[in-house]
Amino acid sequence: MRRLTIGDTPIAGVKTIDRQLFRDERGHFGRLFCAETLAEAGWPGPVVQINESWTSRRGSLRGMHYQIPPHAESKLVTCIRGAVMDVAVDLRHGSPTLLGWHAETLSAENGRALLLPPGCAHGFQALTDDVLLVYCHSAPYVPAADAGVQPLDPRIGIRWPVPIADLSERDRNLPSLPANYLGVRF
Ligand SMILES: Cc1cn([C@H]2C[C@H](O)[C@@H](COP(=O)(O)OP(=O)(O)O[C@H]3O[C@H](C)C(=O)[C@H](O)[C@H]3O)O2)c(=O)[nH]c1=O
User: Fold this and answer.
1) Is residue 181 part of a domain?
2) Which of 25, 87, 109, 114 is most open to solvent, judged by the fewest CB atoms within 10 Å of its CB?
3) Ligand 1 mean position to 68 CA, how many Å?
């Protein structure tokens, strides 16, 4: 069996990555990234930065974030402690699924990760306390390119599963999309 198994989602380029976890009486061992396999899933090049994100409370929500061109990035999100509902939103101009969203439950237990292509905003809600995510990025963080859309925007309509606990000031104030929103040319 392959260490990383790629799955499609209804949004082009958004892929599930199922990680084989080798379990024994000590615990488990699993692969987080494989250039050869993830190239098949559309990963564009080297991993440029790796980040961690720790969220203490169930219900906390982070997102929806993306980097604007020319700093758009692919992102691989892996949950190594706890569980989240992880969400991708399609913001690509001309995409047949523009403003569509897709959610996956990522957890340390299920070993599932989510790969997002450039042009998709990312966010998640913690389904447990004490959640730890690892992010692989295909482009560096550029503060001036750090953009976001409102996670509670009714035009997107993400159904967050549990009552929202913590939401940052920034995320609370992210813009909702205009009625004539056509997406971003990535
Ligand atoms: C994304 C990023 C942020 N930062 C700095 C900027 C802030 O001073 C601090 C916290 O950033 P932020 O409040 O944007 O963190 P989150 O709200 O967890 O956002 C992240 O989680 C959402 C769901 C994502 O998909 C993004 O990867 C990322 O935006 O880290 C960096 O130094 N490097 C980075 O790559």
Assistant:
1) no
2) 25
3) 14
DSSP 43-72: --S---EEEEEEE-STT-EEEEEEE-TTS-
User: Tell me: the pLDDT tens digits for 108-136?
Assistant: 999 999 999 999 999 999 999 999 999 99
Q: Scan for tokens 């966010």, then name that residue.
A: 123
Say if ligand 1 is within 6 A of residue 53 CB: yes
ipTM of model: 0.95
- For residue 36, report the phi and psi dihedrals to the nearest 5 degrees: -65, -50
Q: Which residue has the tokens 């569509």?
A: 100
pLDDT at 2: 79
CA 121 – ligand 1 centroid, Å: 13
CATH number (domain holding residue 39): 2.60.120.10
Q: Is 135 in the pocket of ligand 1 (CB under 6 A)?
A: yes
Domain containing 168: what range? 4-172
Q: Is 173 in the pocket of ligand 1 (CB under 6 A)?
A: no
What average pLDDT does the structure give for the chain? 97
Residue 183 lies in a domain: no
Domain membership of residue 118 (yes or no) is yes
Q: What is the tally of structural domains in the chain?
A: 1
